[in-house]
Design brief:
The structure is a homodimer of 277-residue chains. By secondary structure, the first copy, chain A, is an alpha/beta fold. Chain A has twelve helices and ten strands. Helix content of chain A is 47%, strand content 16%. In chain A, the strands form two sheets. Chain A has an eight-stranded parallel β-barrel with strand order 1-2-3-4-5-8-9-10, surrounded by nine helices. In chain A, strands 6-7 form a two-stranded antiparallel ribbon. At the A-B interface, α3, α4, β3, α5 and α6 of A face α3, α4, β3, α5 and α6 of B.
């Protein structure tokens, strides 16, 4: 029984829509700046959304780009989320926040992310363990996506350390625990970077059909063909393949929204070719 | 050569001030609520600060309690930080945010926490590794406090896993790497919970005189005597011993600020007795 967020994703996946657009809307890089930060960021996001909504399974704003601008950034984030809920209620919105504190403190983040910002999903860091993250895991209708193998070049430092008797790298132990223990409400997923296709294969074996959020496409070096071959679930679904800068900053001119659409369409075409091959 | 944040701490430590007051100012629990959230949270913090400033080495607001109230919470956080800078510039202010994203994205958090909110220090999660956290580590005048062994009951799930040939638990590997590699600018510390005194002893052995932020006193079950015996650096310094709810919610009445002072004074007395024993 999929929850309402996973159902949204499955509906889009069934239309061969796997791309997630990362709304990493760094104000300094926006082509439509007027000086009204909250409004400019929102208008940029709105233009990106309106020109890509039929090509994606999800949107994923990263909290850091909004927090950088204080209350203005937060206002833009909330307006973006509200706009998506009102106009595109079938598309999942995931806040990439990589949060994780002790249990009672996480209630503050849960309240902010799900009740105030109305997000459908969130990324969390596993370091404090399942017990600490219960306030997230208890939200049965949301998608709680746990960092396993992150896309950055230095992710091996701790994530690849071989742990315990089993002799598995830490990222696999995390993925396995999420699938076996943390997912009691059927609301968990994991993060694996597109920059690590062989690790993606390993994680897919360990977690069955759980959703995998896959960042790192494009600017960070991940290739969509490799990613899809490595990350596909048994039903051909289960992937939220994120591209951020590669889509939203495809052009730094006034045609940014059209160029974003072009890149997203190209990614989808390459996905379809793979599917038919 | 200590940086300016560590110098601030050392000056307080030299006066036997080791207590950090955790400004976990959960709006629902404030005794001074009028309905104006931003103002109420700030006034509560101001009262706590004004009645404890001569007893502490640092203040530590936890971001979750502010984010829970959106732009109002953020306004209260910024007002609190500004108030501290203007009135008590010698006291370090640490944002407990447990942040950690990929490198370029962390720049947004760094900008928010250090440039906008003017914090002196921040807690970060180690999971993505040193390379990802460089935007934090490059801030030479700040204190970057890396989670090693957190205070929550379930922190063992990953932190106590034995890794690699050396056969050390992960939290020790993290602490060791922070001391040996991450601390190249002399601006790092680690978090170890007061609820784990024997782990605190192990970490202190591994990291020399680096600052340890020690949460978990009081409500969470940590005892100050045990904590101090376990966490002291060679010079008798090096500890930021945090108590949040045990101090700020010592009373739920109008006498909350006086009662907070009483609890902080009592903790300091117990510290001095230890020192003389």
């Amino acid at each position: 029984m999929a929850n309402s967020t996973i159902k949204k994703l499955e509906k889009r996946w069934s239309k061969n829509l796997f791309i997630c657009v990362g709304l990493d809307s760094d104000y300094k890089r926006l082509p439509n700046r007027t000086g009204d930060i909250a409004s400019d960021i929102f208008e940029f996001n709105k233009a990106i959304i309106d020109s890509t909504f039929d090509l994606v399974c999800a949107y994923k704003p990263n909290a850091a780009f909004y927090e950088a601008y204080g209350t203005d950034g937060l206002t833009a984030l909330k307006k973006t989320s509200t706009y998506l809920k009102e106009n595109y209620p079938d598309i999942a919105v995931i806040l990439d926040a990589k949060r994780g504190d002790i249990g009672s403190t996480n209630e503050g983040y849960v309240s902010s992310i799900f009740d105030n910002l109305k997000m459908d999903g969130v990324t969390v860091s596993p370091y404090l363990g399942q017990e600490a993250l219960e306030p997230f895991l208890e939200r049965k209708d949301k998608l709680i996506i746990v960092l396993a193998k992150t896309s950055n070049p230095g992710s091996a430092e701790f994530q690849d350390l071989v742990v315990g008797e089993g002799g598995k790298p830490l990222y696999q132990v995390v993925a396995e625990r999420v699938a076996r223990n943390w997912n009691k409400n059927g609301n968990c997923g994991v993060v694996v970077g597109a920059t690590y296709p062989s690790e993606l294969v390993q994680v897919r074996k360990l977690i069955g059909d759980l959703p995998i959020l896959i960042p790192g496409l494009g600017t960070q070096g991940g290739e969509i063909e490799n990613t899809v071959r490595s990350g596909m679930a048994s039903g051909g679904w289960g992937m939220i393949i994120n591209s951020s800068r590669g889509i939203i900053f495809a052009s730094d001119g006034k045609d940014f929204a059209q160029k974003a659409r072009d890149v997203a369409m190209d990614l989808n075409k390459r996905l379809l070719l793979l599917k038919d091959s």
